[in-house]
Design brief:
The complex is a heterodimer of chains A (769) and B (154). Chain A is an alpha+beta fold and 769 residues long. In chain A, helix 9 (374-391) packs parallel to helix 18. Chain A is globular, with a radius of gyration of 27 Å. The longest helix of chain B has 14 residues, at 101-114. By secondary structure, chain B is of the alpha+beta class. In chain B, strands 2-1-5-3-4 form a five-stranded mixed β-sheet. Chain B is globular, with a radius of gyration of 15 Å. In chain B, a hairpin with a 2-residue loop joins strand 1 (2-7) and strand 2. The chains are: A alpha+beta (769), B alpha+beta (154). Chains A and B meet through helix 1 and helix 17 of A and helix 1, helix 3, helix 4, helix 5 and helix 6 of B.
Chain lengths: 769, 154
């Protein structure tokens, strides 16, 4: 563990009320949909009932005669232009394979027509009156058959960056370290396993919602629930061929996102209607649309082959990823890169080989979802690690102690892989992995549960999983900040960073307050408005605290230096220092922030004290986590009850203990959902079956096990005040900790999520030992 | 049709389409604390109190409102107990995105009206009607227990 060389922190690391909390607690109108616009049009999307079809004809005459229907847009209203809905850095690493509206539909739920009407009811009536003739095309729902090219989903010329369209390969990656064959030959033991994870949904409670209007200066305003306001502005400008300078994107409070809103899914349609009609427009997804026509977690099949030395260290890791991106490829390459990069960062191995292919199928489209490929990779990795430990009769924790990377170690494969393109050297500067495991082991009562008698109908077991993630995307993510001083020693902090409910506005205010030595209440945060705040790549890849926080720290330090300089001028002293909101001159003069700012505005050496800073990092230090699950398996019914989850995280210096713990506590049920209750079902025509919360079950208050979260303090030298990321890391472990615990409880190894009673019962008769 | 009901203590009489749902109606009045989440009475974001009991506004048709007493957070924000609950939620970090917070507070208010000293199971039960995707219900439970035990400093 690393010790902190910094001074005692007074604002960072302290429990602080959210800066936006009071408005939220009082239910104030702070979300995208909480305004009324005059003459607003309501939009509805007609979606394809077919998994693959060519549109022969769309008849809109009847719909246009319905009272209140104002405008109907089809593919004929938009020029052929391919883009990606992924809100990523530019140029995007995702294939450009989608149109706003297309004449071919590629999954059940693909967009066909947009209706704008005076009321929602009129828009729905319009939708019902539209007639579409389709020529049905063959469809494929099996990612393992996608490369047969029957059918080819994207044969069109003009699509860009599809790796191999004829074989439905959206993206591919391959990387090597050492000599994998030699690695296996040298190994004492070699193990193999195949693991899979299903489609899972972000299920943010606020649906995708966008409102657009023309302001008094005839500029297009987009008020939208998004993680990526600057990418929204860029992509809307591009796809509608509308001047970027005439677009303003406002991100109000966001009602959860988890990656689902790192996507341009309705902004461009709303904007198109507003630009054509001059009227405000509103488009909100229904829950059904959220579940099958928004984005989801990529299902993956991951094969591992691992060579182990006689001393239980790993000698060779071969990883093969088959990723199902659904009908289009937003995030296809980068999610798969993260699957590989994060999993292969955790344990050292001299010989590594990884190959990944992301393929198109005629199913719902996957995208970004918290963890961004890492949960799939760690499900596989931590399953096989558990299997190896069992086979070699070594304690799973001891096995991991022998293998994870430690401080000072180079992780060459991480550099080779990068994220979407070759990355930067990765050296571990801080890790609390050992302490995470040891602390969690005590909190879960590892020895007792592990060795307890496993008999009778109800069997209790314990499992563990380790994980790593990153802190932003090295060499790509950039955040910028503007900070200015007011006469009462308050500071306006204007950020491109996007608080989605994570509390980043508060964490960033704490960082500014710490530097400037003022109470957090003195920092007035305004974030994510493309007219008012500097650029930020957006809230994804666990980047905000680390990257945007780095920008805040720099800007606040610059401003602090300016305050000192100005204070000394006003004091007519040569040198001095700042102490808690005062400039103290070496000769005994003292002047408050308030007086410095007031005199600077009105009377002496007049200036606005302000500063800007940008931050980008070639480092992306991994946070580490150990998650433990205590489960009871009823071997007569196949039901699994999770009794307790212990999650211990090394996120470097925690900025806000409540909010950091909240990230962990929220991630756990999302991962437990992927393990136990959340998965999408499609029938044999590719039609989604579970399109409501009744059938797609996310954890409720009564489903929750006991949750214990702890943090191991480390100091990350490259992070603001020693911080690393925390938002994604805790979602990687719970699902596989549960399946490992199931194995410990009853000897059934679940290699394909979700865990369902039939798998337990079926396998219980033929234990896969 | 014409319906007359009480909204946050004030009488409302209005001509409505009987099939309009109460969520849509309330939001059209600017009662924005009542949220849309799922359309089918599953997520509970649109919770309102009807005669002290939590109900999903998205499942209630305007035609059924006649004579009822409806409350939303807008009508309760100035009440002492609500302020204490809000303080507990803020102090315990029980709010993340805040989208489901009004519904959680109303559900808890309803429980406390019927049972001023609810135990953990009763709180969990009433929260089970409100989906939260951010908190895992951990800190909302802590905050609610603090309220139930009278441990909130207002």
């Amino acid at each position: 563990m690393n010790s902190s060389p910094e001074k005692v922190l007074e604002r960072v690391g302290k429990i602080t009320r959210r800066v936006d909390g009071t408005a939220l607690a009082k239910g104030k109108p702070v979300f995208a949909d909480d305004i009324h616009l005059p003459e607003m049009l309501h939009l509805k999307i007609l979606r394809s009932p077919h998994a693959h079809a060519r549109i022969r004809e769309i008849r809109t005459e009847k719909a246009l005669k319905i009272s209140g229907v104002v405008l109907i847009l089809t593919h004929k209203d938009f020029p052929v232009h391919y883009f990606t809905t992924a809100g990523q850095g530019y140029p995007e690493p995702s294939p450009r394979d989608i149109r706003i509206l297309d004449e071919t539909v590629r999954y059940v739920g693909d967009r066909v027509v947009v209706v704008a009407a005076e009321t929602l009811a009129a828009a729905e009536a319009g939708l019902a009156a539209i007639e579409v003739d389709y020529d049905i095309l063959p469809a494929n729902f099996d990612p393992e058959k996608a490369q047969e090219g029957n059918p080819v989903l994207h044969p069109e010329t003009g699509k860009i960056d599809i790796h191999d369209a004829a074989h439905n390969v959206a993206s591919q990656l391959e990387a090597s370290l050492g000599d994998i064959q030699q690695g296996f030959e040298e190994s004492e033991w070699v193990f193999e396993g195949r693991y899979s994870t299903p489609y899972a949904q972000q299920a943010h409670i606020e649906p995708h919602i966008t409102l657009t209007w023309m302001d008094a200066d005839e500029r297009l305003v987009i008020r939208t629930s998004t993680q990526v306001p600057f990418h929204v502005r860029r992509i809307v400008a591009e796809v509608l061929d509308y001047p970027m300078r005439n677009i303003r994107v406002i991100k109000p409070r966001v009602g959860g996102a988890f990656g689902g809103k790192q996507e341009i899914l309705n902004e461009e349609l709303c904007a198109a209607v507003t630009l054509r009609t001059g009227r405000p427009a509103r488009l909100e997804f229904t829950r059904a649309e959220e579940l099958y026509a928004a984005r989801s977690r990529h299902p993956q099949i991951v094969l591992f082959k691992i060579g182990v030395n006689a001393d239980y260290t790993l000698n060779a890791i071969d990883m093969d990823i088959l990723e199902n991106c659904g009908a289009y490829g937003p995030h296809a390459l980068t999610v798969m890169s993260v699957t590989a990069q994060k999993a292969l960062t955790l344990y050292r191995s001299p010989h590594v080989h990884v190959r990944g292919q992301a393929v198109y199928t005629n199913l719902s489209v996957a995208g970004a979802y918290r963890g961004y490929g890492a949960p799939q990779g760690f499900f596989a990795l931590e399953s096989i690690m558990d299997e190896i430990a069992h086979a070699l009769t070594i304690d799973p924790i001891e096995f991991r102690h022998k293998n994870y990377v430690t401080t000072g170690e180079d992780v060459p494969i991480a550099k080779i892989l990068g994220e979407g393109r070759e990355g930067f050297p990765v050296v571990i500067e801080s890790t609390g992995m050992r302490e995470c495991l040891e602390e969690g082991k005590k909190l879960i009562d590892w020895e007792l549960l592990r060795t307890a008698e496993k008999s009778g109908p109800e069997r209790r077991g314990v499992g563990v999983a380790c994980a790593a993630q990153g802190s932003g995307i090295a060499g790509i993510d950039m955040g910028a900040v503007f900070i200015k001083m007011n006469e009462d020693a308050s500071f306006n902090l204007l950020l491109g960073a996007t608080d989605l409910g994570t509390g980043s506005d508060t964490a960033l205010a704490q960082i500014a307050a710490e530097v400037l030595e003022v109470p957090v209440e003195n920092i007035l945060v305004y974030s994510s408005d493309t007219d008012m705040t500097p650029f930020d790549t957006g809230a994804y890849a666990s980047s905000t605290t680390y990257i945007s926080g780095g920008a805040v720290k720099k800007a606040a330090e610059k401003l602090k230096a300016r305050i000192l300089e100005q204070g000394l001028i006003l004091l007519k002293e040569e040198s001095g220092r700042i102490d808690n909101g005062l400039v103290l001159g070496s000769n005994g003069g003292r002047i408050s922030y308030q007086e410095i700012c007031t005199r600077s505005f009105y009377t002496e050496n007049q200036t606005q004290l302000m500063a800007t800073a940008s931050h980008m990092s070639y480092d992306s230090p991994p946070p580490f986590n150990a998650t433990f699950a205590d489960v009871t398996v009823d071997v007569e019914t196949g039901l699994v009850r999770v009794n307790k989850i212990v999650s211990v995280t090394d996120a470097g210096q925690v900025i806000n203990p409540h909010m950091a713990a909240g990230q962990v506590e929220g991630a756990i049920p999302q991962s437990l959902g992927m393990a136990l209750s959340e998965f999408m079902i499609f029938d044999d025509t590719g039609t989604p079956v579970n399109t409501s919360f009744r059938d797609y079950h996310i954890f409720t208050a009564i489903d929750m096990p006991e949750i214990v979260t702890r943090f191991i303090h480390t100091h990350e030298p490259t992070g603001p005040f020693g911080a690393k990321a925390v938002a994604e890391i805790p979602i990687n472990g719970p699902a596989v900790a549960v399946t490992n615990a199931i194995f410990n409880a009853c000897g059934v190894r679940i290699r394909n999520l979700p865990v369902t009673p039939d798998k337990i019962l079926l396998k219980f008769t033929e234990p896969d030992l | 049709m014409r319906v007359a009901f009480q909204l946050n203590g004030k009488p409302v009489e209005t001509e409505v389409e009987p099939g309009m749902n109460v969520l849509e109606f309330l939001r059209s009045l600017g009662v924005f604390s009542v949220k849309h989440g799922c359309d089918h009475g599953e997520c509970g974001s649109c919770t309102v109190l009807v005669d002290d009991k939590p109900q999903n506004a998205c499942l209630m048709l305007m035609g059924t409102l006649d004579g009822e007493r409806i409350e939303t957070l807008e009508g309760l924000n100035a009440r002492r107990r609500m302020e204490l609950m809000q303080a507990a939620f803020l102090d315990e970090g029980a709010i993340q995105c805040g989208y489901c917070t009004p519904a959680m507070l109303l559900a808890l208010e309803s429980l406390l009206r019927a049972n001023p000293k609810p135990d953990e199971a009763a709180i969990r039960e009433v929260f089970s009607g409100i989906y939260c995707r951010c908190t895992g219900y951990v800190k909302p439970m802590v905050a609610a227990k603090k309220v139930a035990l009278g441990e909130v400093d207002g």
